[in-house]
Please model this.
Amino acid sequence: MKKNNPSQKEKETVCVVGLGYVGLPLAVRTKEKGYNVIGLELDKKKIELINKKQSPIEEVYLYENLPKHPIRATDNAKEIKKADIVLICVPTPVDEYYNPDLTLVQKSCEMVAKNLKKGALVVLESTVNPGVSEEVVHPIFESFGHKIGSDVFIAHCPERINPGDSKWNVTNIPRVVGAFTQKGLKKSVEFYEDIIDGEIRPMKHIREAEACKVVENSFRDVNIAFVNELAKSFDALDIDIKDVIDGASTKPFAFMPHYPSCGIGGHCIPVDPYYLIERAKRAGFDHKFLRTSRAINNSMPAYTVELLQDKLNEVKMPLNGTNVGILGIAYKPNVDDDRESPYYDIVNALEKHGAKIHSFDPHIKEKSSVKTLATLLKKSDAIILVTNHKEFDEINGKLLKKNKIKVIIDGKNTLNKKDIEKNGVVYKGIGR
Model:
């Protein structure tokens, strides 16, 4: 499709609603490509930092590009009236019972609809289940008197972002787009083709675009659940799952390696399947496979604590009263994102057993109970590695022995098992 020319870009204003892990990189990228960008955000501290050209998020792309392509952040919803394009990038979490919570999407749509200029394009990037655009978004804009396809063009382009990835980021990850009308679809595809160096695939129906994201992450959830269940099985069978997966990976086709761990975190994989599960339930379909996968993956933090308890028993130590150090709070390595991190479920399980807990994450120091790795090791009798940050690469058998660590549970299977055991420290991985 034909892309916008430079003169058009200079005239267009884009408003990004929600300046988090998705919205802020998208806003900066849009500014980088020549658009006038307004960022709408409620967090005043975040607004202040962004307006100082400082990223509130630990992300290389933002560190490098926000100072060069600064955006204007505000909490004034009336600024939306200036926008030709509005991108809604707000969280879509689940509650404590795993029920989808669309509150922020609804409130954002109401705010945008109330302040929208005629003929603007509105794109929902937030991850939602199939049907939300039709059942929630569309009625909201109509209730404010907007006619879809003339007063406003509505599309859905589910966010794809991978924090901490040096190769794939907001600039080059391919995207899918769906819209209510062909004109809206054309506008959306042209915009995304202009800002992203990757394929932009138009979908036949907006519902298909919604389904793509939940399918992508449900696929990963199912495969991770499979290897997590294998990990439990192989623990009973005395088989090293890491060796088995590496061996199976030598097959050059029809196998995609996934690895077990102490739990799944982030705002996508532990959340998105529930959106499909609950929406399908309302349509009379039961996603048994997805529910089983979620149950398996949700069980891993507690299973990790069980492994620690078993290994402490081997050295005649109770979990109750033992000083347990937790390495990592973030849900993945080398980022400061702790959303849905297994760390929290592991802490809860340890507290129920009466353990004394110490934590350290070099990327989330404000939530750590100690200030350095050295301090955590000195305070701890046992360790659980939750996040394989690069700062933890220095951990070896000699260091653990020096600090009189009796047991270490490798929740990511990244440490040197032979070296640790050679130094007299009890090692246990997930499935190895």
